[in-house]
From TrEMBL:
Keyword Methyltransferase: yes
UniProt xrefs under Gene3D superfamilies: Trimethylamine methyltransferase-like (3.20.20.480)
Molecular function terms, GO-annotated: methyltransferase activity
GO BP of this protein: methanogenesis; methylation
Record field: transmembrane: none
InterPro entries: MttB-like_sf, MTTB_MeTrfase
Alphabetically ordered keywords of this record: Methyltransferase, Transferase
Organism superkingdom: Bacteria
Region spans: Disordered: 476-505
UniProt key word Transferase: yes
Family: Belongs to the trimethylamine methyltransferase family.
A Pfam family per the record: MTTB
Protein name, as recorded: Trimethylamine methyltransferase
Organism name: Candidatus Promineifilum breve
Length: 505
């Protein structure tokens, strides 16, 4: 069996779905994207007197019937990387922050291209980070309208892993699709072997903005899987109670799934979210408040009951630093996500209400995520039933350290954390320098960055991606410099020659 958590029972899930269906049919959604609205009306969806689009029961049923139960995410080279569905759990860095907590100066500041390149190189080698995300914005000399493509470029040239991304403008998806297509034979191959998941945000109040509508259209038509991520604020624009909030959340998510299936039946869609609770005293929106976490596992249960892949913002922290609060919030929510079988968990590396990214926290979170994944492995007898022989052996030897059973199974049964997690006794810890968590995590960041080896990329592909980005600028301008491998202190021009083999698609 697999360890799991059951947040809501089947009867309550059916009640939540019934209430959500009624809201979709009687109140509907405000669809602000003109092209998406036109597609929905052409598909025969009715409207309310105030113009809101209504979703009748038969439309909902057809959409749910056509939505895939799982899909495979492939890496840059076209090899399968992650199966999104069932109870498979994959951890991915959160997005999209604005600042970096500089591990060299302990300063919180606006992030740069050099910071992002270091992040991508670090995440590329972390064993429990299944794929990357365009985790935070760069604030150096790059136009905002192409900044999303620039971050994707940095991911694609510094890692082979897939990436969770998204467009920040109404027409940003197209150039990002062009860039990813360079790593496939053609557009059909990109659809067959997707290398990215794009985030579509529902803003609450049963509304989809112009940007969200257009981005969904562009993604679905290009074959990019999308995660529908409502920002459900409990106590502010959604009920403070769990069941009521779950209904509101389900309405927003289902609406996105239905729209995607109307545009292209069979489009891969994740039942996701980024809920938070409204703090009645501080007037903040903690994503790691315990009521928000209850909503995470509750809506995930609803998505699973519908047979859909799921996503959540968990395994992160609202704390400002890598401290006790950050560790508790990250591990607690990572374990809940793993127990709930959430397929794509966005969170590692993030602090401060999804505003600040930290590289030391990312390496520590990788360790915590590894422990959570170890915990939810299937439990079954492992050469230990009948147990009588092991009992006789321990009585005879007074230990099982060198027993054949121990020697055979301890490498897989006993999880060995990275050096970031302290498992030494006090004497050995002191002899090794008495480093605290932040020091150990910072040292691990620098060790991994020093050992990083860049994936080989065809210079022609690099040049074409740069051309696509600059073509989207309102005025010609040089792209920001990217630091060479091995240092974050000096930057080489993006057009600097590289010694590498030709990349074969």
């Amino acid at each position: 069996m697999r360890p799991r958590i059951q947040a809501v029972d089947d009867a309550l899930i059916e009640q939540i779905l019934s209430e959500a269906r009624r809201i979709l049919a009687e109140i509907g959604m405000e669809v602000r994207g003109p092209e998406m609205r036109r597609r929905l009306l052409e598909a025969g969806l009715p409207t309310a007197e105030d113009g809101r689009v209504l979703f009748p029961a038969d439309v909902i049923d057809r959409a749910l019937a056509s939505a895939p139960r799982s899909f495979t995410l492939y890496n840059r080279d076209g090899a399968p990387q992650a199966e999104i569905g069932g109870d498979n759990v994959h951890f991915v860095p959160a997005s999209s922050g604005l600042k970096i907590l500089d591990h060299r100066t302990n300063e919180t500041r606006l992030a740069t291209t050099a910071d992002f390149a270091e992040y991508a190189r670090l995440a590329d080698g972390l064993p429990h980070i299944a794929y990357l995300a365009t985790a935070f914005s760069t604030n150096d000399d790059i136009e905002a309208q192409v900044s999303d493509a620039w971050r994707l470029y940095l991911c694609l040239t510094n890692s082979r892993k897939p990436v969770v991304s998204g467009a920040f403008t109404e027409h940003g998806v197209g150039r990002m699709v062009e860039m990813m297509s360079l790593f496939r034979h053609d557009r059909a191959d990109l659809i067959a072997r997707p290398m990215s998941i794009f985030t579509i945000t529902a803003t609450g109040m049963f509304r989809y903005s112009e940007d969200s509508c257009q981005n969904m259209l562009d993604c679905v038509e290009a074959g990019i899987p999308v995660e529908i991520v409502p920002v459900t604020l409990m106590g502010l624009i959604a009920p403070v109670s769990l069941v009521g909030a779950a209904v509101f959340h389900t309405v927003d998510t289902l609406a996105g799934i239905i729209m995607a299936q109307i545009v292209r039946p069979g489009a891969p869609v994740l039942f996701g979210g980024a809920p938070a609770e409204f703090h009645m005293r501080a007037a903040t929106s903690p994503m790691l408040g315990i009521q928000a976490l209850r909503l995470d596992v509750a809506y995930a249960a609803v998505g699973k009951a519908l047979g859909l892949p799921t996503q959540a913002y968990m395994a992160l922290s609202d704390s400002k630093f890598l401290d006790a609060q950050a560790g508790a919030e990250t591990f607690g929510s990572a374990l809940l996500a793993a127990l709930a079988g959430i397929n794509s968990v966005s969170g590692p590396g993030m602090l401060d209400y999804v505003l600040t990214f930290s590289l030391p926290k990312l390496v520590y979170d990788d360790d915590l995520c590894g422990q959570a994944l170890h915990f939810v492995r299937h439990i079954a007898p492992l050469d230990d039933v009948p147990t009588i022989d092991l009992a006789r052996e321990v009585m005879a030897e007074q230990h099982l350290i060198t027993a054949a059973h121990t020697m055979s199974h301890w490498p897989t049964e006993l999880h060995m954390p990275s050096p970031v997690t302290d498992r030494e006794n006090r004497e050995n810890w002191a002899k090794a320098g008495g480093r605290d968590l932040l020091q150990r995590a910072t040292d691990e960041v620098e060790r991994r960055l020093a050992a990083y080896e860049a994936p080989e990329t065809d210079p022609l592909v690099v040049a074409e991606m740069q051309r696509i980005i600059t073509a989207g600028m309102s005025a010609p301008a040089p792209l920001p410099d990217v630091p060479p491998v091995g240092t974050g202190l000096k930057a080489a021009p993006t057009n600097a020659p590289r010694r590498q083999r030709r990349f074969t698609r």
